[in-house]
Amino acid sequence: MAVEKAREIINDIVHRRVRHLDGNVNKELAAKLLGVFFTFRLYTIGTKGLLEKLWAEIRSDVSFTDFILTSANELRLRLTVDEYGKVLDAIVTAYGHPQDDSTVVDADTLGRLPGKGNEFRAMLQSNPWFVFLIILETLELMPAKGTR
């Protein structure tokens, strides 16, 4: 339930902030978001080093940085502390991969994927902008023509 509420909030945020005053989509911002999703494959970011590379890309554009940070702040403001904690737990469950002998994923790939432990959750907790991006990636960024 908390994840669906977060998705609804992010959908609202994006549809307000990714549009110009005339109602048209800010294609430059939308392209930047899609570029981040395709370049970084968020599901593979499980280490601080990989997260730092993503942050460097975001930080390279002041407008994009402002969009990401203010959107993440609004998400946290609109969720209760309990709901936000449940969102973090859900992301750890969905994105975390078991780091044990029963997995058949090779060591190289596994080394880049998030684990299911407290370390990944702490990384999410300390980087709410990353939480925002992970959830945003699950939404339809630009609706099909004629639907909005």
Question: Which descriptors would you attach to this protein?
Answer:
8 helices, globular, mainly alpha, 148 residues, single chain
| Alpha plus pi helix count | 8
Helix content: 55-70%
Low-confidence stretches: 144-148
Q: Please state the CA-atom Rg, rounded to the nearest Å.
A: 16 Å
Structural class: mainly alpha
Describe, in plain words, how this protein is organized in 3D.
Helix content is 66%, strand content 0%. With 148 residues, the protein is mostly helical. It has one domain (2-136). Helix 4 (62-78) crosses helix 8 (128-136) and helix 5 (81-95) packs across helix 7.
Task: Please give a quick description of this structure.
The chain is mainly α and 148 residues long. Helices cover 66% and strands 0% of the residues. It is globular, with a radius of gyration of 16 Å.
